[in-house]
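Before the break, one more example. Copy the sequence into your notebook; we will annotate it together after we see the structure.
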Amino acid sequence: MANKKQRAREFIIKTIYMTAFIFILGMVVVSCTKEEEEPLVVSKVSLVYLAADNSLSGEGYDKLEAIRQGWTATPGSRVLVYFDSADKGASLLELRGDHQMDILEEYGEENAAASEVFRRVILKAAGLYPQATLNLLVFSHASGWLPQCSYNNPSLRSVVMDRNNEMDLADFADAIPNNSFQYIIFEACHMAGIEVAYQLRYKARYLVASSAEIVSPGFTDIYREYIGELVSGNPVSFMQQAFNYFDKQTGYMRSATFSVIKTAKLEDLAGFIKTYCDINKEVNITNIQPFDRNSDHLFFDFGSYYLSLLATDTQREELSALIEACVVWKATTPYFMEGYRGFVIEEHSGLTAYIMQEAYPSLNERYKQTEWYKAIK
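Here is what the structure looks like once it is written out:
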């Protein structure tokens, strides 16, 4: 009888242990399965739009390679690159942490300066990673707010150029759904204009741009070391490194006019200008800081111009404070492109502005169609 009881007790104990083992094993299997079913959420995506189907094609390849070399994958972050060159069709690429690139889509020959193409790429990026905060970097020829083919100067283009096609600022803005980006960084010339910033005020929280041209090779070398700063959402740190790069150069290469602009304060700035500045007042434009290398200037320092339209020191102090609220970071070299029809930089508010001139009646009429002019008239 005792042996039977003992065997029964041992059977019960073994059964309990076996049940516990199966339960624990089941929990491990369920846990592993659950982890496999819950992919990492991508929270930050940088979309790079390399529109280089133009004279910048070679530089576009250099930038793509620099970004590939510089990007080290981090959990929850991605880099997508739309690349269109002069010798190949356009494609959408995704960078991997092992410095490799996956081709997500190939488009063949297409016009990267077409607003519908630009919008398609933005929507694709947002669709791939719907929970992510998106940042945008744009590289191409550009000329700020100036409409395409509006000014006979080969160095000036509108926002994006593809061979003989250009994208107007208004079309560029319309292609971007509101609140799409944390920031937009322009590796393109003359994009720090108030006209540009105001047109894009609902598209991104911050704009990163240059008042003057960007001297080649632009940000190529900075990508190799600091592309991660852009992906992580730290454009000020990236731009400080970009400025340091140019500031340590010699000759014409020591040329930079960079700024980071906060769009949330731009309507306050426009309201003040409308209330207190006499935009019909004639000014001697030779006294206003220029930011282009032409004898007939089209890009002037915003602060230098609008401060000259005010009546009192108090108003000028208030406007200066509003400009500082909009321009959260800026840096400039003392001179721009020395020896190449360059200019001394005595004033740099971080924004530029167009001043209407009798010599450009057609351009003046186009300027009156900008959202900035309509806000301050």
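The two ends are 107 Å apart (CA to CA). Residues 269-326+349-376 form one domain. Try to locate both features in your own notes.
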